[in-house]
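Hi everyone,

Forwarding the result from last night's run.
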Amino acid sequence: MSPVVYGAILAELLAVTVIDLRVERISNFWALANVLGAGLLYLLLPESYVWSFRVLNFPICFLVLGFLLFLAKIMGAGDSKFLSSLFLLLPLGFHVPFFEALLLSTLVIGAVLFALKVLRNFSAARAHVLTGNWGGFRQTIASRFSYGPVILVAWVLLGIKLWT
């Protein structure tokens, strides 16, 4: 992946992250921009962006998984659409490394946020666990968080892996 493409995606992710943190919503504009950008990349950089149906594996999986996570109220619809479309901007050879970075950033950030939530509400969480009130425990620790920063961290991790 060229440093120019990486930098452009990094700039987009910075903008999306700021917006996601401020309004807790990722507009469909960004997903549409990614789809159009991917079309341009496939036309302008055919040596890096070789079309095959395998290019759609991760986007379709993330769209389906994101929809299920949206129904479970775990992930926002904009987050899943944006993430799905982001994979279209990546050459096929970068799908797996980016997915690995995304998985790592999701697990680490999710674990930290979970631990902070439990620590902030420790007495209530402890009481729910001791009484077996798992519904109350879930309500005590439940929180939605912006996924844009998680994607940004994964992108930075991918960049570190690519250029070190």
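Residues 3-162 form one domain.

Cheers,
N.
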